[in-house]
User: What shape does this take?
Amino acid sequence: MKKVRKAVIPAAGLGTRVLPATKAMPKEMLPIVDKPAIQYIVEEAAASGIEEILIITNRGKGLLEDHFDRAPELEDRLATDPGKAAILEQVRSITKLANIWYVRQKETKGLGHAVNCARNFIGGEPFAVLYGDDVIMGEDPACGQLIRAYEQYGLGVAGVKEVSPQAIHKYSSLKVEPLAGNCFRCTDMIEKPAPGQEFSLYSILGRCVLPPEIFDILDVTPPGAGGEIQLTDAMKTLARRKGMVALDFTGKRYDMGSKLGVMQAGVEAALGHPEIGGEFRAYLKELAKTL
Ligand code: UTP
Assistant: This one.
Protein backbone atom coordinates (compact mmCIF):
# COMPACT_ATOMS: atom_id res chain seq x y z
CA MET A 1 0.00 0.00 0.00
CA LYS A 2 1.30 3.47 -0.92
CA LYS A 3 2.15 5.78 1.98
CA VAL A 4 0.10 8.95 2.52
CA ARG A 5 2.70 11.68 1.84
CA LYS A 6 0.61 14.43 0.30
CA ALA A 7 -2.17 16.66 1.53
CA VAL A 8 -4.58 19.11 -0.03
CA ILE A 9 -5.88 22.14 1.87
CA PRO A 10 -8.87 23.69 0.08
CA ALA A 11 -8.86 27.38 0.95
CA ALA A 12 -10.72 28.92 -1.97
CA GLY A 13 -14.12 29.47 -0.34
CA LEU A 14 -15.66 32.93 -0.13
CA GLY A 15 -16.04 32.95 3.64
CA THR A 16 -19.40 34.68 3.56
CA ARG A 17 -20.22 33.69 7.15
CA VAL A 18 -17.44 35.84 8.59
CA LEU A 19 -17.93 38.96 6.52
CA PRO A 20 -16.91 41.74 6.61
CA ALA A 21 -13.63 40.42 8.12
CA THR A 22 -13.16 38.23 5.06
CA LYS A 23 -13.95 40.85 2.45
CA ALA A 24 -10.27 41.38 1.63
CA MET A 25 -8.59 38.84 3.94
CA PRO A 26 -8.89 35.06 3.51
CA LYS A 27 -10.72 33.43 6.44
CA GLU A 28 -7.81 30.97 6.65
CA MET A 29 -5.67 33.92 7.82
CA LEU A 30 -7.94 34.78 10.76
CA PRO A 31 -5.65 34.68 13.81
CA ILE A 32 -6.11 32.38 16.78
CA VAL A 33 -4.29 34.61 19.30
CA ASP A 34 -1.06 35.05 17.32
CA LYS A 35 -1.14 32.38 14.63
CA PRO A 36 -3.37 32.25 11.55
CA ALA A 37 -5.74 29.30 11.25
CA ILE A 38 -3.95 27.94 8.18
CA GLN A 39 -0.68 27.63 10.13
CA TYR A 40 -2.34 25.35 12.69
CA ILE A 41 -3.55 23.21 9.80
CA VAL A 42 -0.17 23.04 8.05
CA GLU A 43 1.48 22.20 11.40
CA GLU A 44 -1.03 19.39 11.94
CA ALA A 45 -0.30 17.98 8.47
CA ALA A 46 3.46 18.17 9.04
CA ALA A 47 3.14 16.52 12.46
CA SER A 48 1.18 13.73 10.74
CA GLY A 49 4.09 12.91 8.41
CA ILE A 50 2.86 14.85 5.38
CA GLU A 51 5.74 16.08 3.20
CA GLU A 52 4.00 17.87 0.32
CA ILE A 53 1.02 20.18 0.70
CA LEU A 54 -1.09 21.76 -2.03
CA ILE A 55 -3.17 24.73 -0.94
CA ILE A 56 -6.11 25.49 -3.23
CA THR A 57 -6.44 29.27 -3.40
CA ASN A 58 -8.26 31.81 -5.50
CA ARG A 59 -8.09 35.50 -6.31
CA GLY A 60 -7.19 37.60 -3.31
CA LYS A 61 -5.50 34.84 -1.30
CA GLY A 62 -1.95 36.07 -1.85
CA LEU A 63 -1.54 36.60 1.90
CA LEU A 64 -1.57 32.82 2.34
CA GLU A 65 1.47 32.47 0.10
CA ASP A 66 3.24 35.36 1.81
CA HIS A 67 2.75 33.73 5.21
CA PHE A 68 4.69 30.60 4.25
CA ASP A 69 7.38 32.55 2.36
CA ARG A 70 10.56 34.10 3.72
CA ALA A 71 10.25 37.73 4.87
CA PRO A 72 13.81 39.10 4.37
CA GLU A 73 13.23 42.66 5.55
CA LEU A 74 11.38 41.58 8.69
CA GLU A 75 13.92 38.84 9.42
CA ASP A 76 16.87 41.24 8.98
CA ARG A 77 15.28 43.68 11.40
CA LEU A 78 14.53 40.99 14.01
CA ALA A 79 18.08 39.64 13.66
CA THR A 80 19.54 42.97 14.84
CA ASP A 81 17.75 42.67 18.21
CA PRO A 82 19.03 39.87 20.49
CA GLY A 83 15.77 40.12 22.47
CA LYS A 84 13.86 39.03 19.36
CA ALA A 85 15.80 35.81 18.68
CA ALA A 86 12.92 33.52 19.69
CA ILE A 87 10.35 35.24 17.50
CA LEU A 88 12.84 35.32 14.61
CA GLU A 89 13.22 31.56 14.93
CA GLN A 90 9.42 31.17 14.93
CA VAL A 91 9.05 33.37 11.85
CA ARG A 92 11.70 31.36 9.99
CA SER A 93 10.36 27.97 11.08
CA ILE A 94 7.02 28.67 9.34
CA THR A 95 8.79 28.46 5.98
CA LYS A 96 10.26 25.04 6.78
CA LEU A 97 7.13 23.15 7.85
CA ALA A 98 6.61 21.33 4.53
CA ASN A 99 6.93 21.80 0.78
CA ILE A 100 3.94 23.96 0.03
CA TRP A 101 2.48 24.37 -3.45
CA TYR A 102 -0.43 26.45 -4.65
CA VAL A 103 -3.01 26.17 -7.38
CA ARG A 104 -5.97 28.41 -8.07
CA GLN A 105 -9.53 27.25 -8.27
CA LYS A 106 -10.72 29.57 -11.00
CA GLU A 107 -14.39 29.52 -10.01
CA THR A 108 -15.92 28.84 -6.59
CA LYS A 109 -17.76 25.72 -7.62
CA GLY A 110 -17.60 23.84 -4.33
CA LEU A 111 -15.30 21.77 -2.14
CA GLY A 112 -15.43 18.77 -4.51
CA HIS A 113 -14.41 20.97 -7.43
CA ALA A 114 -11.60 22.48 -5.31
CA VAL A 115 -10.23 19.02 -4.43
CA ASN A 116 -10.41 18.01 -8.09
CA CYS A 117 -7.96 20.85 -8.86
CA ALA A 118 -5.35 18.71 -7.05
CA ARG A 119 -5.47 15.80 -9.52
CA ASN A 120 -2.11 16.45 -11.22
CA PHE A 121 -0.36 17.21 -7.94
CA ILE A 122 -1.58 14.00 -6.31
CA GLY A 123 -1.02 11.63 -9.23
CA GLY A 124 -1.78 8.03 -8.24
CA GLU A 125 -1.26 8.32 -4.48
CA PRO A 126 -3.64 8.31 -1.53
CA PHE A 127 -3.84 11.75 0.07
CA ALA A 128 -5.23 13.67 3.02
CA VAL A 129 -7.67 16.58 2.77
CA LEU A 130 -7.63 19.17 5.56
CA TYR A 131 -10.44 21.71 5.16
CA GLY A 132 -8.88 25.16 5.33
CA ASP A 133 -11.31 26.56 7.87
CA ASP A 134 -11.43 23.62 10.29
CA VAL A 135 -8.79 23.86 13.00
CA ILE A 136 -8.43 20.79 15.21
CA MET A 137 -6.43 21.01 18.41
CA GLY A 138 -5.33 17.97 20.36
CA GLU A 139 -2.38 15.90 21.54
CA ASP A 140 -2.54 13.43 18.65
CA PRO A 141 -2.82 15.20 15.26
CA ALA A 142 -6.20 14.34 13.72
CA CYS A 143 -4.77 13.92 10.21
CA GLY A 144 -2.30 11.34 11.55
CA GLN A 145 -5.13 9.41 13.22
CA LEU A 146 -6.91 9.18 9.86
CA ILE A 147 -3.72 8.11 8.08
CA ARG A 148 -3.27 5.25 10.58
CA ALA A 149 -6.87 4.12 9.95
CA TYR A 150 -6.21 4.25 6.18
CA GLU A 151 -3.11 2.11 6.63
CA GLN A 152 -5.04 -0.36 8.81
CA TYR A 153 -8.14 -0.80 6.64
CA GLY A 154 -6.97 0.21 3.14
CA LEU A 155 -10.16 2.23 2.63
CA GLY A 156 -10.90 5.93 2.35
CA VAL A 157 -11.32 7.49 5.80
CA ALA A 158 -13.61 10.34 6.85
CA GLY A 159 -12.97 12.17 10.13
CA VAL A 160 -16.29 12.41 11.96
CA LYS A 161 -17.87 13.77 15.12
CA GLU A 162 -21.41 13.57 16.43
CA VAL A 163 -23.30 16.82 15.96
CA SER A 164 -26.60 17.90 17.51
CA PRO A 165 -29.93 17.00 15.86
CA GLN A 166 -30.48 20.76 15.40
CA ALA A 167 -27.17 21.20 13.53
CA ILE A 168 -27.03 18.06 11.37
CA HIS A 169 -28.87 19.69 8.44
CA LYS A 170 -25.93 22.10 8.00
CA TYR A 171 -23.43 19.25 7.74
CA SER A 172 -23.38 15.72 6.30
CA SER A 173 -24.88 12.57 7.81
CA LEU A 174 -23.23 9.16 7.58
CA LYS A 175 -24.62 5.64 7.61
CA VAL A 176 -22.28 3.83 10.00
CA GLU A 177 -21.89 0.56 11.86
CA PRO A 178 -19.28 -0.10 14.57
CA LEU A 179 -15.96 -1.57 13.42
CA ALA A 180 -13.51 -1.28 16.33
CA GLY A 181 -12.83 1.38 18.96
CA ASN A 182 -13.61 4.77 17.44
CA CYS A 183 -13.74 3.35 13.87
CA PHE A 184 -16.99 2.74 11.99
CA ARG A 185 -17.72 1.22 8.63
CA CYS A 186 -19.50 3.75 6.43
CA THR A 187 -21.59 2.59 3.48
CA ASP A 188 -23.59 5.70 2.60
CA MET A 189 -23.82 9.40 3.36
CA ILE A 190 -25.76 12.53 2.48
CA GLU A 191 -24.74 16.21 2.38
CA LYS A 192 -27.02 18.70 4.17
CA PRO A 193 -29.85 16.22 4.88
CA ALA A 194 -33.41 17.53 5.02
CA PRO A 195 -35.32 16.50 8.17
CA GLY A 196 -36.00 12.75 7.98
CA GLN A 197 -33.10 12.05 5.57
CA GLU A 198 -30.43 11.67 8.29
CA PHE A 199 -28.63 8.32 8.61
CA SER A 200 -27.01 9.23 11.95
CA LEU A 201 -25.67 12.26 13.82
CA TYR A 202 -22.13 11.44 12.65
CA SER A 203 -20.93 14.15 10.32
CA ILE A 204 -17.69 14.67 8.39
CA LEU A 205 -15.80 17.45 10.10
CA GLY A 206 -12.76 18.81 8.36
CA ARG A 207 -10.53 15.84 7.54
CA CYS A 208 -10.44 12.84 5.21
CA VAL A 209 -7.94 10.51 3.57
CA LEU A 210 -8.87 9.48 0.05
CA PRO A 211 -7.64 7.07 -2.62
CA PRO A 212 -6.74 8.63 -5.99
CA GLU A 213 -9.82 7.07 -7.64
CA ILE A 214 -11.82 9.91 -6.04
CA PHE A 215 -10.73 12.12 -8.97
CA ASP A 216 -12.52 9.99 -11.59
CA ILE A 217 -15.59 10.03 -9.33
CA LEU A 218 -15.39 13.83 -8.92
CA ASP A 219 -15.23 14.22 -12.71
CA VAL A 220 -18.73 12.77 -13.01
CA THR A 221 -20.23 14.11 -9.77
CA PRO A 222 -22.99 16.60 -10.63
CA PRO A 223 -23.56 19.76 -8.57
CA GLY A 224 -25.41 18.95 -5.35
CA ALA A 225 -26.46 20.97 -2.30
CA GLY A 226 -26.21 24.72 -2.97
CA GLY A 227 -25.48 24.08 -6.66
CA GLU A 228 -21.85 23.21 -5.74
CA ILE A 229 -19.85 20.08 -6.55
CA GLN A 230 -19.80 18.45 -3.14
CA LEU A 231 -16.90 16.31 -1.91
CA THR A 232 -19.44 14.43 0.22
CA ASP A 233 -21.31 13.36 -2.93
CA ALA A 234 -18.11 11.88 -4.38
CA MET A 235 -17.31 10.14 -1.06
CA LYS A 236 -20.86 8.77 -1.07
CA THR A 237 -20.09 7.01 -4.37
CA LEU A 238 -16.87 5.66 -2.85
CA ALA A 239 -18.67 4.54 0.33
CA ARG A 240 -21.40 2.76 -1.64
CA ARG A 241 -18.90 1.13 -4.00
CA LYS A 242 -16.20 -0.09 -1.60
CA GLY A 243 -17.11 1.20 1.83
CA MET A 244 -15.22 3.83 3.75
CA VAL A 245 -14.08 4.12 7.35
CA ALA A 246 -15.54 6.84 9.59
CA LEU A 247 -13.13 7.74 12.37
CA ASP A 248 -14.40 9.60 15.43
CA PHE A 249 -11.07 11.40 15.92
CA THR A 250 -9.82 12.80 19.19
CA GLY A 251 -9.18 16.54 19.42
CA LYS A 252 -11.40 19.57 19.47
CA ARG A 253 -12.54 21.10 16.21
CA TYR A 254 -13.15 24.80 15.70
CA ASP A 255 -15.09 26.12 12.72
CA MET A 256 -13.06 29.14 11.66
CA GLY A 257 -15.66 29.82 8.99
CA SER A 258 -18.17 30.89 11.65
CA LYS A 259 -18.10 33.84 14.05
CA LEU A 260 -18.72 31.65 17.10
CA GLY A 261 -16.00 29.19 16.10
CA VAL A 262 -13.48 32.01 15.67
CA MET A 263 -14.21 33.27 19.19
CA GLN A 264 -14.16 29.79 20.79
CA ALA A 265 -10.79 29.01 19.21
CA GLY A 266 -9.37 32.35 20.32
CA VAL A 267 -10.55 32.07 23.92
CA GLU A 268 -9.39 28.48 24.39
CA ALA A 269 -6.02 29.02 22.72
CA ALA A 270 -5.49 32.16 24.82
CA LEU A 271 -6.15 30.20 28.02
CA GLY A 272 -3.37 27.76 27.12
CA HIS A 273 -0.97 30.32 25.69
CA PRO A 274 2.48 30.31 27.39
CA GLU A 275 2.79 34.11 27.28
CA ILE A 276 -0.69 35.39 28.12
CA GLY A 277 -2.49 32.29 29.49
CA GLY A 278 -2.31 33.21 33.21
CA GLU A 279 -3.31 36.83 32.77
CA PHE A 280 -6.08 35.96 30.34
CA ARG A 281 -7.53 33.36 32.72
CA ALA A 282 -7.66 35.93 35.53
CA TYR A 283 -9.31 38.44 33.18
CA LEU A 284 -11.89 35.90 31.99
CA LYS A 285 -12.78 34.90 35.57
CA GLU A 286 -13.36 38.52 36.51
CA LEU A 287 -15.40 39.11 33.39
CA ALA A 288 -17.47 35.98 33.97
CA LYS A 289 -18.59 37.36 37.34
CA THR A 290 -20.30 40.22 35.55
CA LEU A 291 -22.23 38.03 33.07
P1 UTP B 1 -17.26 26.22 3.12
O1 UTP B 1 -18.55 25.92 2.51
O2 UTP B 1 -17.17 26.36 4.59
O3 UTP B 1 -16.57 27.52 2.49
O4 UTP B 1 -16.22 25.17 2.54
P2 UTP B 1 -17.12 28.93 2.13
O5 UTP B 1 -17.67 28.93 0.73
O6 UTP B 1 -15.98 29.85 2.34
O7 UTP B 1 -18.25 29.15 3.22
P3 UTP B 1 -19.27 30.32 3.53
O8 UTP B 1 -19.33 31.23 2.33
O9 UTP B 1 -18.76 31.03 4.73
O10 UTP B 1 -20.53 29.58 3.82
C1 UTP B 1 -15.36 24.34 3.31
C2 UTP B 1 -13.93 24.42 2.80
O11 UTP B 1 -13.86 24.27 1.39
C3 UTP B 1 -13.21 25.37 0.79
C4 UTP B 1 -13.33 26.52 1.78
O12 UTP B 1 -12.23 27.41 1.65
C5 UTP B 1 -13.30 25.77 3.11
O13 UTP B 1 -11.99 25.53 3.54
N1 UTP B 1 -13.87 25.65 -0.52
C6 UTP B 1 -15.21 25.76 -0.62
C7 UTP B 1 -13.08 25.79 -1.65
O14 UTP B 1 -11.83 25.68 -1.59
N2 UTP B 1 -13.69 26.03 -2.85
C8 UTP B 1 -15.04 26.16 -2.98
O15 UTP B 1 -15.52 26.37 -4.13
C9 UTP B 1 -15.82 26.01 -1.82
